[in-house]
Amino acid sequence: MAIVGANGAGKSTLFDGVMGLVHTRGDIRLAGESIQGKGPTFAVGAGIGYASERFNLFPYMSVRDNLLTGAWTARKSIEENLLRVHTLFPRLAERESQEAATCSGGERQMISLGRALMSAPKLLLVDEPTIGLAPKICAEIAQSLQRMRDEMGLTVLIAEQNANFAIRLAERLLILESGHIRAGGQSEELAKDEGLVSAYFGKDAGGFEAKEGVKSPGAAWT
């Protein structure tokens, strides 16, 4: 599923709320269990991984050490999970000893995603995975997200300004506007709504080009 909205719509705040990083009202449930107000430690332990828009990497630590900071809830499976991350992102294996500060924007996004995967999550929250990245790198990230769903069985929830990226990748969309859901449904159906397309998607919302293996709207996301 993808949550689409302009800058300031509330996407990152929503994810921060799920992780217990900000105060929220109402209720947040994971697999039927309330995680409201229990904080980020509980959220990660319950199986939620978070690759934030801000990356929050340790700039002067190596790529490997940045990945290992995400492994504290799965310390018995570090090598197994590290191999999985390297399989998804071979470039991180090549840059293993390199400081994160010297990596490209695309590589830092891969580190952020890889670190979230090191906890072996059941649900992965991915905030703005394409921000500031070239279309070619966006396609690589899209392919990796699809593999996480297909090969690892992850439920993936993406927050994205790039509506074109989201509508090509996710089976379902929610459109967020000023903290409220403007519309929601199957990607294929929303893509037929001329008003929504004109307002949110346009003819080229970011220039993302799908690579082979990345499906068009309707790709089955958990």
Provide an overview of this structure.
- The structure is a single chain.
- The protein is an alpha/beta fold.
- Helices cover 39% and strands 16% of the residues.
- It starts with a strand and ends in a 21-residue tail after the last helix.
Report the total helices. Answer: 10
Ranges where pLDDT stays below 50 over 5 or more residues in a row are: 204-222
Give the full name of the CATH homologous superfamily of the domain at 7-154: P-loop containing nucleotide triphosphate hydrolases
Mean pLDDT: 85
- Span from first to last CA? 8 Å
Biggest sheet details: 6 strands, mixed
Structural class of the secondary elements?
alpha/beta
The outline comes out as globular
* Total beta strands: 8
What's the CATH class of the domain at 7-154, please?
Alpha Beta
Output the helix-strand order: EHEEHEHHHHEHEHEEHH
What helical percentage do the residues reach? 25-40%
Instruction: Give the second-level CATH assignment, the architecture of the domain at 7-154.
Output: 3-Layer(aba) Sandwich
Strand order of the largest sheet: 4-5-6-1-7-8
Supply Rg: 17 Å
How big a fraction of the residues is strand? 15-25%
CATH T-level fold name of the domain at 7-154: Rossmann fold
